[in-house]
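Module 6 notes. Inverse folding takes a fixed backbone as the condition and produces residue identities as the prediction. Think of it as a translation problem where the source language is geometry and the target language is the twenty amino acids. Below is one complete input and output pair. Work through it position by position during the lab.
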């Protein structure tokens, strides 16, 4: 190996690094996005789906309770709403 060959190899490597730099950044962004999607699918979406079901159930129960209260009030019953205090 000559000094010229080594210098040419160093220049070629530097050129390759400059040209691959944006590709490496792009590849890192793709990997980060893949990790985010994985976290969404494995953790966040199931957790939020469970929470949504809990809130919907609570709202349904509240609607049923209010409906019963309105029906009792419409029927003229005084015990439509319990006394407080």
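Target side of the pair, the amino acids:
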């Amino acid at each position: 190996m000559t000094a010229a060959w080594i210098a040419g190899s160093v220049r070629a490597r530097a050129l390759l690094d400059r040209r691959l730099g944006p590709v490496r950044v792009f590849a890192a962004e793709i990997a980060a996005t893949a990790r985010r999607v994985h976290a969404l699918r494995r953790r966040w979406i199931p957790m939020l789906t469970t929470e949504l079901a809990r809130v919907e159930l609570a709202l349904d129960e509240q609607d049923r309770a209010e409906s019963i209260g309105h029906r009792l009030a419409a029927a003229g019953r005084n015990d439509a709403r319990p006394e407080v205090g």
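Reference fact for the lab report: The chain has one domain: 3-78.
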